[in-house]
Amino acid sequence: MKLASYKNASRDGQLVVVNKTLTQCVLVTEIASTMQQALDDWAQTSPKLESVYQQLNASKLTDTLPFDSKKCESPLPRAYQWADGSAYVNHVELVRKARGAEIPESFWNDPLMYQGGSDDFIGPTDDVPLPSDKWGIDFEAEVAIVTDDVPMGTLPENARQHIKLIMLVNDVSLRGLIPGELAKGFGFFQSKPASAFSPVAVTPDELADKWVDNKVHLPLISEYNHELFGCPQAGIDMTFDFSQLVAHAAKSRNLSAGTIIGSGTVSNKQGTEYGTSIAEGGVGYSCIAEVRMIETIRDGEPSTEFMKFGDHIKIEMKDEHGNNIFGSIEQQIVEAELC
Amino acid sequence: MKLASYKNASRDGQLVVVNKTLTQCVLVTEIASTMQQALDDWAQTSPKLESVYQQLNASKLTDTLPFDSKKCESPLPRAYQWADGSAYVNHVELVRKARGAEIPESFWNDPLMYQGGSDDFIGPTDDVPLPSDKWGIDFEAEVAIVTDDVPMGTLPENARQHIKLIMLVNDVSLRGLIPGELAKGFGFFQSKPASAFSPVAVTPDELADKWVDNKVHLPLISEYNHELFGCPQAGIDMTFDFSQLVAHAAKSRNLSAGTIIGSGTVSNKQGTEYGTSIAEGGVGYSCIAEVRMIETIRDGEPSTEFMKFGDHIKIEMKDEHGNNIFGSIEQQIVEAELC
Q1: Which residues pair with B89 in a beta bridge?
Q2: Residue among A203, A207, A193, A273 nearest A235 (CA)
Q3: Contact (CB<8Å) A251/B131
Q4: Within a 10 A sphere around the Cβ of B327, how many other Cβ atoms?
Q5: Average pLDDT in the B317-333 region?
Q6: What is the pLDDT at residue B90?
Q7: Which of B53, B63, B113, B296 is deepest in the core (most CB within 10 A)?
Q8: How far is A151 from chain B (nearest CA, A)?
Q9: Cross-chain Cβ contact A193/B115 below 8 Å
Q10: In terms of pLDDT, which residue wins out, B272 or B267?
């Protein structure tokens, strides 16, 4: 099943069921007004939503609306938790290598994860307003999942059942602010402004045999300023699968329904040391920082600039027939109007 | 005005207005069912809630209930954002000194702040369930504020107006997990399990002349296993006031209504190098770690143990007449029943 949150006068938007081909949708207020309401009571709401989805796909419903990504909030316009992993260790290795550092051996068996801000996500086709483009603005294309209630201490083998929805995310990062924040030791804060998620969140069964071993086995496509920038396969080189990430997050606390957990920037090694760019005939990257790292390792300094006001990023994933699964994140970086 | 969230069958509890002396309360469903609803529309709801508060204090209401802290959730049982500062730089200096490190000069003019988990707070008198007491369980007594919507880029001088509520917090920390997490560079995650907040949140005007310069000028009292452990003055040695912390959090993003921002562990130097314990005749500390640091500096190793299952912590603040302002956080550490 496919779900989205349509913009309305409220902070949480209006839950809609979207058909498989992303052409039609229908309000489901009688089941749940918002995505969070649906997730709060998922055992009760999901069979009803699934039934609507089947009828919608079978064209048995009246009162449908043409589906329009531009009317979407992020599936959870605000969430109670956004925890982002960094499961593609190649990404981490590359960033460290460029500054001459090795990654600790533990990074291969203990997931990296940070607590992200979740109070004010940006819509999937909304502008990304930022006060300055001197802060090293970067996109990060990732896969994310949404859980129901996960009890403290849940083991990886039991975590899979708590993964209820899958979506894509643009985890906007301010690279210029990261070194200073990490040096302070408290993790990211100002360097991780509001993220945006794909217009549509889908249940794992929608991915059929592309959802295996708690990973999504499809390319994640990033187009930067309307040119292909990366299409790494999200199922490859994902050192920690989503069940491991959920279990990591739940080690010392319960996770409440609607918790979003991200994969980290999708990155493939492709049999090379650090992967190769689209220009080099490879699958490219899911953020600008990685290209800059490759350039630094190769040339001694980066040549690709970070994003400036006016730059555009599109992130999407297609099934093996070329059909857009989640709708597209399509965003432009703009200067924030400060008060 | 004083507000609380009574436990009910829902995840967010039931908003109640509490009288000044914490003896009576009243449901206000006709104004807002939950604390978050009230905060989402604060300009509309707060005058109505204030009116109820005045009538409650004047004993003009029927339908009142005796107020009972044990029936309370944290004022926001789950929140969209919990960002914890570390504004008492003495605390940071002490922790670093014990391991032979100096703090960078920048710590005196750039606030430390981490993004905390906010999806599943513990009630103020509920047990703190954890899987192990081998992880260095510690309490941290702090002051916290709640904002309305804060636009990106808000300056400190404009941030004060966004501080709508004040409360106390027990920011539970797992000291044994912190070094490993900080070494990974992504900040706290597993080392910061669910926090608990005081039964009651109050508007700044309730503190009258004790709310000056965006700081609370009253002692924060911690009783550990029923003995006084600390009573440092929250208005002293707070290097960054709450307006500065709000502005820091809003540098690169909007903060949504209901954002909670913490002061960090309250700590006074008292004219000494690192403060002194209650036993030494000082105002003591607001967490066990600081006492252990003093012991380490003095004796070469710590002698006070971290919390074990069964240990008890009480955190509260009284006005100059000895009246409890926020109700008391009273919690016991217990072993979590893992599934």
Answers
A1: none
A2: A207
A3: yes
A4: 26
A5: 98
A6: 82
A7: B113
A8: 7
A9: no
A10: B267
pLDDT score, position B30? 97
Handedness of CA A60, A63, A69, A73 (dihedral sign): negative
Q: What is the pLDDT of residues B37-65, one digit of tens each?
A: 999 999 999 999 999 999 999 999 999 99
Q: How far is CA A262 from CA A285, B38, B83, B254, in A?
A: 17, 31, 20, 21
CA A6 → CA A30, A156, A257, B172, distances in Å? 16, 33, 20, 38
CA distance A153 to B337: 9
Q: Confirm or reject contact between B248 and chain A (CB < 8 A).
A: yes
What is residue B215's predicted lDDT score, i.e. its pLDDT? 98
pLDDT of residue B277: 85
**Candidate from B107, B251, B256 with C-beta closest to A119:** B256
Neighboring chain A residues of B152 at a CB cutoff of 8 Å = 129, 131, 336, 338
Among the listed residues B6, B12, B8, the one whose alpha carbon sits nearest the alpha carbon of residue B120: B12
Q: Work out the end-to-end distance of chain B between its first and last CA atoms, rounded to an integer number of angstroms.
A: 41
The string of pLDDT tens digits covering residues B3-13 is 999 999 999 99
The DSSP result for B143-203, as a single string, is: EEEEES-B-TT--HHHHGGGEEEEEEEE--EEGGGHHHHHHHTS--STTS---EE-S-EE-
Cβ separation of A186 and B113 shorter than 8 Å? yes
Instruction: Indicate the pLDDT class of residue A183, thresholds 50, 70 and 90.
Output: confident
pLDDT given at position B168: 98
Please tell me the distance from the alpha carbon of residue B247 to that of residue B159, in angstroms, as a whole number: 6
- The amino acid occupying position A82 is W
What is the DSSP code string of A95-143?
HHHHTT-PPPGGGGTS--EEEEP-SSPBPTTS-EEES-SSS-EE--EEE
Rounded Cα distance between A149 and A254, Å, is 7
Helices B89-98/B288-299 angle, 10° precision: 40
Q: Give the residue among B77, A265, A186, A240 at the shortest CA–CA distance from A249.
A: A240
- The first and second tokens of residue A163, run together, are 């993964």
Are the Cβ atoms of B189 and A83 closer than 8 angstroms? yes
CB contact under 8 A, B114 and A81: no
CA proximity to B143, closest of B235, B244, B237, B229: B235
Closest alpha carbon within chain B to A251: B190
* Beta-bridge mates of residue B167: B144
Could you write out the DSSP letters of every residue in A151-179? -TT--HHHHGGGEEEEEEEE--EEGGGHH
Q: Which three-class secondary structure state does DSSP give residue B17?
A: strand
Q: Of A83, A46, A310, A29, whose CA–CA distance to A202 is shortest?
A: A46
